Automatic annotation (TrEMBL):
InterPro entries, sorted: SpoIIM-like (IPR002798)
Coiled-coil annotated spans: none
Protein's UniProt keywords contain Transmembrane: yes
This protein's record includes keyword Ribosomal protein: no
Segments traversing the membrane: 105-127, 152-174, 186-209, 229-247, 268-286, 298-314
Domain of life: Bacteria
Record-given protein name: Stage II sporulation protein M
Keywords: Membrane, Transmembrane, Transmembrane helix
Amino acid sequence: MNIQRWIARRELNWQRLDTLLRQVEKKGLKSLRAMEIRELASLYRSVAADLARARTQKVGNTLIQSLQSLTTRAYTQIYQGSRRQEWQAVLEFYKWGLPAVVQQTFPYIAIATALFLLGVLVAWWYAWQDPSFMPLIVPESLISRVRDDRKLWMGSIVGIEPLASSSIMINNLSVSFGAVAGGITAGAYTTYLMIFNGLLIGAIGTLVGQNHLAYPFWAFVFPHGSLELPAIFFAGGAGLLIARAILFPGKYRRRDALKSYGSQAAQLVFGIVPMLVIAGTIEGFFSPNPSIPDPLKYLAGMGLFVLLVMYCSRKR
């Protein structure tokens, strides 16, 4: 191989790669056009091959080191730089994107919340009017513990907090994903989950109220419920968005409507996962802790809810 001729033929590529890398290192990958990004990737592969050839032919340490530096810089910008931009995009979504999509989809979230509250009211009404209603919703063992022993059940979490917390997270995620997936049933399953969970909360709330245990019960619920329940309402709203695309695509073709509304639903799902993880951690470690005074639990729950409302109301 004629080394000088090979270097002369390849040197323009090396210089071009160096020029592109200087721009990326100074202004970021977004400063390049799509064509230049493809060129950057192509030149990286080409120079990496040149480096391998230079090592094989032993063309000299200076050139090998120069090519090694070029390939290292290119690798850093193409791979690590893209990962950094991905993390920046994630942070940007949680900073501004999630509040924006919550505001855009608020009517659907409000309908899901209304379905839940309907379940609460129905359970409260029937639990007071018909004693046979309670066992239809609440397990007999829980009813017996509250009515006969005058005790709540949350103390069973104490001592197994990590296991309880992970189980709670999995359960909450299952309910939420079920509510989202229920959209493909034209919203029927989403509606069922919202109403059923409202019935369950309403029945249990009435049970503890009838047996004078409401204050410690709601002290347990408030800290994690301030995030857990809104997350479930968001999931219900996501399911109803999918149902809207199926039932009422409007001026769009149904496939296009599913893409549009499905994108918003996916963003809501992406947003509720950390909410449920935090809520599960609180429910496992903070809410049942007997050493924490009940007034502090109420304050923590109300404080978290206020912060959530302020966060979701943010505008860029």
